[in-house]
């Protein structure tokens, strides 16, 4: 009894003495953090990863060393997600659309024509709705840190200009591995072919697919203009990226280390969105210069596409997504006011 009391006293005393020391000297261990991504180093994704690498180094006195792996060299989005869950890789950035096999709710962001502009998107992703979805990743072994901008998606193909939706008929169009995208493009009359991004360039080069859809920044940085003649500005979906950490790994970090990662991630989000938006303004002229033939879909045509895609929206709602979609639309309406 006496012994127990003195042990308790001693440990209490030790804690009291050590506490101020711990607060001034941060608890950071030297670590190597592998951060994988699918686009090239010379892309908005690559530039933002580089920014994150530098922020982490600055904020940790060089102890938290992040190494970026571009071009899906650690695997496709889905492969990396699984590596994070298993603890074989620490971090990544990728599309939320490829997360639907893990958290089905993310499919709500794949529905077309939800957001009118980037500001609406920022407010929803950074607000309670976006945060609630990100939190659902925790029980699946992932930590959703921040959303970056991928951007509004547009169509490219090698067959013909798409001026009306009928022009998509029979076009083999690569989509992300996601049921909403498959339903959407089949509703437009295309033949949707789900494929990982890392296989896309070759698939277009060899004619396995005729077209794809992505933001203009990606069409530029992934050199799709080399294998695609026609670009149609359709802005059919606003697509986010999400920066993920392995939960198994993240849980083993100190509070100080986690704080640095969270703050560096927030800084990278602001950098990435600004950079992507600036870059996208240059892309159209760049792609024209590279020989792409570019047209913009009229509002009337976009209206027809909204009608055509209704069954796909209804299917999403009927399969349990109704409440989530209503909630998202209410959030967007709040920003619109
Ligand atoms: C796609 C996405 C890509 C992402 C990226 C490789 O088409 O738009 O930007 O998956 O992380 O797959």
Automatic annotation (TrEMBL):
The keyword Signal applies. One of its GO terms (cellular component) is outer membrane-bounded periplasmic space. Pfam families: DctP. It comes from the Bacteria. The keyword Signal applies. InterPro entries: DctP_fam, TRAP_DctP, TRAP_DctP_sf. One of its GO terms (molecular function) is carbohydrate binding. GO terms for biological process: transmembrane transport. Residues 1-25 form the signal peptide. Keywords: Signal. This is TRAP transporter substrate-binding protein. It comes from Roseomonas genomospecies 6. The lineage of its organism: Bacteria, Pseudomonadati, Pseudomonadota, Alphaproteobacteria, Acetobacterales.
């Amino acid at each position: 009894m006496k012994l127990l009391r003195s042990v308790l006293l001693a440990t209490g005393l030790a804690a009291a003495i050590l506490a101020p020391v711990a607060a001034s000297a941060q608890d950071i261990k030297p670590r190597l953090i592998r951060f994988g991504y699918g686009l090239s180093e010379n892309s908005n994704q690559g530039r933002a990863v580089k920014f994150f690498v530098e922020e982490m180094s600055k904020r940790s006195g060089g102890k938290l060393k992040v190494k970026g792996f571009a071009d899906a060299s650690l695997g496709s989005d889905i492969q990396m997600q699984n590596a994070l869950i298993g603890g074989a890789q620490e971090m990544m950035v990728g599309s939320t659309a490829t997360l639907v096999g893990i958290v089905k709710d993310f499919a709500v962001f794949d529905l077309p024509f939800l957001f009118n502009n980037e500001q609406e998107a920022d407010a929803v992703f950074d607000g309670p709705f976006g945060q609630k979805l990100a939190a659902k990743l925790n029980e699946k072994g992932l930590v959703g840190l921040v959303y970056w901008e991928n951007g509004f998606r547009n169509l490219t193909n090698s067959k013909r200009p798409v001026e009306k939706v009928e022009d998509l008929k029979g076009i083999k169009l690569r989509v992300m591995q996601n049921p909403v995208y498959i339903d959407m493009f089949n509703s437009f009359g295309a033949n949707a072919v789900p494929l990982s991004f890392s296989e896309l360039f070759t698939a277009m080069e060899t004619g396995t697919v005729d077209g794809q859809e992505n933001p203009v920044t990606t069409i530029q940085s992934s050199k799709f203009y080399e294998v695609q003649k026609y670009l149609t500005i359709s802005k059919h979906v606003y697509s986010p990226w999400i920066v993920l950490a392995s939960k198994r790994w993240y849980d083993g970090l100190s509070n100080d280390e986690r704080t640095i990662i969270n703050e560096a991630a927030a800084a990278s989000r602001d950098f990435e969105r600004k950079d992507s938006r600036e870059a996208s303004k240059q892309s159209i002229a760049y792609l024209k210069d590279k020989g792409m033939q570019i047209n913009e879909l009229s509002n009337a045509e976009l209206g027809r596409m909204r009608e055509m895609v209704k069954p796909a929206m209804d299917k999403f709602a009927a399969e349990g997504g109704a409440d989530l979609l209503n909630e998202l639309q209410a959030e967007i309406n709040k920003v619109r006011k």
